[in-house]
Automatic annotation (TrEMBL):
GO CC aspect terms: nucleus
Subcellular compartments: Nucleus
Family matches, as InterPro entries: hAT-like_transposase_RNase-H, HATC_C_dom, RNaseH-like_sf, Znf_BED, ZnF_BED_domain_contain, Znf_C2H2_sf
GO MF, one annotated term: DNA binding
Pfam families, A to Z: Dimer_Tnp_hAT, hAT-like_RNase-H, zf-BED
UniProt subunit comment: Homodimer.
Residue intervals of the BED-type domain: 13-66
Predominant cellular place of this UniProt entry's protein: nucleus
SMART domains, per database record: ZnF_BED
BP GO terms, sorted: post-embryonic development
Protein name: Zinc finger BED domain-containing protein RICESLEEPER 2-like isoform X2
Organism: Cucurbita maxima
């Protein structure tokens, strides 16, 4: 620039903040605006306005790494808002009200402060990088998205200061987030007031069905009496490994999290392999005296998994009939002409059903149940169609329709029970006992069917159920006892119907387990902490263990002798008091939270028992056959990365929901 011929003009009329980045120079008879960053010359005439200067400033700032900001003065904001007044007035708004709204929203001082804050903004590359990684974890995005052309263009235009990262870099960031989040979960588990129950669930990969993953989830009731859960591990499982290796891997996870001594129960699916694994883990924990009641309540099978297996048995019994029903529905759906003819026949036989006919999704047994439920209501219309249409020959026989009706009734019952047990993602264990007792009684009734085919099916389902009941019935009954609306009365109501003449003995088994469990909790209660603390301080590790064992026996003696002297325990008081009314809205955890001061020891027991996951199946997977599937984009990653992503996603989501 030729300085002698140019004079920098300082004018009080230059009100726009855009002039903070331009010099207005008079050159001859014209004015020039010179950018202070790149020295580019633009028109500085008052008739030219400032829009072209603001547009240049945005582009210029991108090149000079000053960040992006939008320079709109209070006068310009008012102008934009005023242009919208006509629309508001057309919609019936008062013009004065709209003008007041404009004045409130576009206060000049506020605009000035916002502009200054934007200009003072310091870009943090590391924080932005980890925000990106957390976004990928939270929403399950593929790591490779950071190398997609569209994403890179979008980010560069959004903020040119951000240094684009590679797929390997974002993977490392995700692993770092996992380490930090894991530390938080570790601290949370360490501070829990009660025990932890674990569930184990098998997953598979989308493109590699032979690949399996074991998901371990901790379930617990926190200090606020909220039932919560956290995914702890998501491990790749080699199909060639034996059950011994699987149990060793789980034990290693427990010790890695340092929760082996805090474990109360463990829930697996209903399979012989799972039984062996849980038995091995229980034996190892029992050797160290970590389990209550010698592990009687430790081994739990998933109730929803059991219902799914019995539903699959029912559908398998219809394996020859289901194709006919699917073909029948497809036949009437093939043309409007056939559909109209079928509708006339449905009216002729006075079908009152409001259900629509549609082919099922075989991977969701509730979909098959819905198809069968609708089809049996149109059975007479299907029979008429077969008589009048020689091209339709898929109609089931009368005997097949009869069996379909009965088995659909079985599915209806399983469907209703499943819905009750999965209506919340965090069901407490007390709700399972009455529902599964009803299942037990229904299976006993179905076994009396006069049709040998139905009787054989009922026997098959009943065998599965009784294996489950032998393992989990005691834990279910103890959980029901801790519901103040029922206490022991629910057990006393159902057991005579289930066990007949031996019901009294079975009820005594429950009572004895409850008392033993209560006694062990009383020994471990804060009331006994002084004696236990002394026990831990005696001698070396081995002698300390012996002293602890002796004092634990002494605590038990004190507890039993105090009871014999006439003082009532928490358990006695709880069982003697009236039942809580059932006709009011009720939350069992809130009840125990309120009554903890009255029942300090029994509430500890309730916290541990009510947190047992009687089901490990999420509500959105309740009717699904087969395992849950790892997302395709994640399943191709290294096992350690998959674990980091799945666990971190669970932790971040639960943190956002809390």
């Amino acid at each position: 620039m030729d300085v002698p011929e140019a004079v920098i003009v300082k004018s009080s009329r230059l009100k726009s903040v855009v002039w903070n980045d331009f010099d207005r120079i008079k050159k001859g008879d014209t004015f020039v605006a010179v950018c202070r960053h790149c020295k580019k010359k633009l028109s500085g005439s008052s008739t030219s306005g400032t829009s072209h200067l603001r547009n240049h400033l945005i582009r210029c700032q991108r090149r000079s790494n000053h960040g992006m900001s939008q320079f709109i003065t209070s006068r310009e904001k008012k102008k934009e808002a005023t242009l919208a007044i006509t629309n508001y007035v057309d919609q019936g708004q008062k013009k004065d009200d709209v003008l007041n709204l404009v004045n409130i929203r576009f206060d000049p001082e506020q605009v000035k402060d916002e502009t200054n804050n934007t200009l003072n903004y310091n870009f943090d590359q590391r924080r932005s990088r980890f925000d990106l990684a957390r976004m990928i974890i939270l929403h399950g995005y593929p790591l490779g998205m950071v190398e997609h052309v569209g994403f890179r263009v979008f980010v560069k235009n959004l903020h040119p200061l951000f240094e684009l990262v590679s797929c390997n870099r974002v993977e490392s960031d995700c692993l770092e987030i996992y380490v930090k989040e894991k530390q938080k979960v570790n601290e949370l588990l360490d501070k829990l007031p009660g025990k932890i129950s674990l569930s184990a669930d098998m997953w598979t990969a989308t493109d590699h069905l032979e690949s399996s993953y074991l998901c371990l989830t901790a379930h617990y009731i926190d200090e606020s009496w909220q039932l919560s859960k956290k995914v702890l591990n998501f491990m790749f499982v080699d199909p060639s490994h034996t059950e011994d290796l699987h149990s060793d891997a789980i034990m290693n996870c427990l010790m890695d999290w340092d929760i082996d001594r805090k474990l109360f129960s463990m829930t697996f699916d209903c399979s012989s392999n799972s039984d062996y694994i849980s038995l091995r883990i229980r034996d190892r924990l029992s050797q160290n005296r970590f389990l209550y009641c010698n592990g009687q309540l430790f081994d739990v099978s998933c109730a929803i998994d059991l219902l799914n297996l019995m539903a699959q048995d029912a559908l398998e019994a219809l394996c020859d009939i289901l194709p006919k029903i699917r073909d029948s529905i497809q036949c009437i759906k093939q043309s409007r002409e056939v559909q109209a003819k079928f509708n006339e026949m449905a009216e002729q036989v006075k079908v009152q059903s409001q259900k629509g006919l549609s082919v099922d999704n075989p991977s969701q047994w509730n979909s098959t149940y819905a198809m069968l439920g609708a089809a049996v209501e149109y059975r007479e219309a299907f029979s008429l169609l077969q008589e009048s249409d020689v091209g339709y020959s898929a109609c089931p026989t009368e005997e097949e329709w009869g069996r379909t009706c009965v088995i659909t009734g079985f599915l209806k019952f399983f469907f209703e029970v499943t819905n009750i047990l999965t209506k919340t993602n965090f069901p407490t264990s007390n709700i399972f006992f009455p529902e599964l007792c009803d299942v037990h009684l229904q299976l006993m009734e179905w076994s009396k069917n006069s049709d040998d085919y139905i009787k054989a099916l009922a026997f098959k389902m009943r065998t599965k159920f009784e294996e489950y009941w032998d393992k989990c019935g005691l834990a279910l009954a103890v959980s029901a006892m801790l519901d103040p609306r029922f206490k022991m009365k629910l057990v006393e109501y159902y057991y005579p119907q289930i066990y007949g003449v031996v019901a009294v003995q079975r009820i005594d088994d429950v009572v004895n387990c409850v008392k033993a469990l209560y006694n062990e909790h009383s020994i471990c209660s804060p009331l006994a902490s002084i004696d236990q603390g002394l026990a831990w301080q005696v001698g070396s590790s081995s002698s300390g263990k012996d002293a602890r064992d002796r004092l634990m026996g002494f605590d038990k003696f004190l507890h039993e002798s105090s009871q014999s002297e006439g003082s009532k325990s928490d358990l006695d008081k709880y069982l003697e008091e009236p039942l809580f009314p059932r006709n009011v809205e009720f939350n069992v955890l809130n009840w125990w939270k309120v009554h903890t001061p009255r029942y300090p020891i029994l509430s500890m027991m309730a916290r541990n028992v009510l947190g047992i996951p009687m089901s490990k199946v999420a509500s959105d997977c309740a009717f699904r056959s087969g395992r849950r599937v790892v997302d395709r984009e994640w399943s191709s990653l290294k096992p350690a990365t998959i674990q980091a992503l799945v666990c971190s996603q669970d932790w971040i989501r639960s943190e956002l929901e809390s």
